[in-house]
Amino acid sequence: MTFDWALVQKAIPLLGTGLLTTVKICLLAMLLGIVLGGALGLGSLSRWKPLRWAVMAYVDFIRGTPLLVQIFLVYFALPVVGINLPEFWAGVIALGLNAAGFIAEIVRAGVGSIESGQSEAARSIGMRHSQILFHILLPQSLRSIVPPTTNELITLVKGSALLSVISVYELTRAGQAIISVHFAPLEIYLLIALYYYATISALAWFSRYLERRLPAW
Amino acid sequence: MNVESPVIDAQGVSKAYGDREVLRGVSLSVGEGETVVLIGPSGSGKTTFLRCLNRLETPDAGLIRLRGEPIGVDESGRPLSEARLAKQRSRFGFVFQRFNLFAHLTALDNVAIGPHRVLGLPIEEARARAREELARVHLQDHVGKRPSQLSGGQQQRVAIARALAMKPELILFDEPTSALDPELVTEVVDVMQELAQSGLTLLAVTHEMRFARAAADRVVFMDGGSVVEEGPPDVILGNAREERTRKFLIHLHE
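^ Those are the sequences you sent over. The predicted structure of the assembly is below.
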């Protein structure tokens, strides 16, 4: 067995194009996931029961179904009800909606882990539910929210490989295209793995940097 | 003491958790400028009663009035909106056994957050008020510290300043010294005595008999979810009528 270094050299820029798409999709999906997940997380802490139930049902659905099926739902099922999304945006939305469900749960758990005396003291000076949430509980729970959120974003990056099945020309798909022409699965899949590993390492580094910057008390 | 127009007037307050009755129709009122000390064995319902007054707990029955205004319900007995209830709570000060200072804020902002967020003072004005109240509890040199950098006694004094900064009509103390190391009790009790002497209206659950003797106008003994007897400190602490009260005080002194 020989390792085809010439092909590896040729593949590096080709996979780079795929990686660029992966990064674009993931950044947009992270944005959607964090914004929507944060909002849903706050919704799950609302005083209004129907909203809490709606969020719980959403989180339950996301947790209880495979990401691949969620991608198919967005890409193949939405057109049936008249919503046609190009594969790039279908990918962004599917990954974002998925991450939002998990991030909502992380926010809820993070805020819930703050000792009850904190909100009691805030109630005792006449603060309202929303003020307690924003000025007392959320600032204190940031530190416990950031690490699991990073894990979730790492999962999102890995999950983006599934978008190859709806022919988004992202990293995995770009590699498959090379393999189908040159038949060099060992070289190309190793290279793909390396690209993902580097991307995720960068994300993990950024998260540790952020954690260090968060105030401790 | 002005019995005709009490600051707080609780009538027939009852509360049960499941089938465990914690309060069985407790009635108590505290007059303007009065200091009342509430004592009793653990499980007698003192803390629950205190928490019912400012509606940290919702009583099952009974009516509580703050300067004549029903707490937590309107005149026809319907529960108040969250906003109106929060406004009523801001008229009480509450000092917790475990301080419950906001862990992410400095001493200064722990005290300023109420005047700023609840009373709507501009932040600089709220901080100025916070500095005054921290000086009143002798912590002017610690304003920039976070709770984790303060001793238990200092934390409790910040918590007292936090309550004072809301200019409450009545301050409730829930065993404010029982989570403190013995050598830190004095500094908190001293501050409480100063507050009592300055004419504030205080209701304190505490077993600091030194405070009760020096500062209380009245001592109330509770047992089994009811008020057993009440009277001036020298009578209750020295010459109680009820057997249960005397027994409790003997245990306390052992």
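The radius of gyration of chain B is 18 Å. The interface with chain A takes residues 54, 56, 82-83, 86-94, 96, 98, 100-104, 113-114, 117-118, 146-148, 159, 162-163, 166 of chain B (CB under 8 Å).

Shout if you want it in another format.
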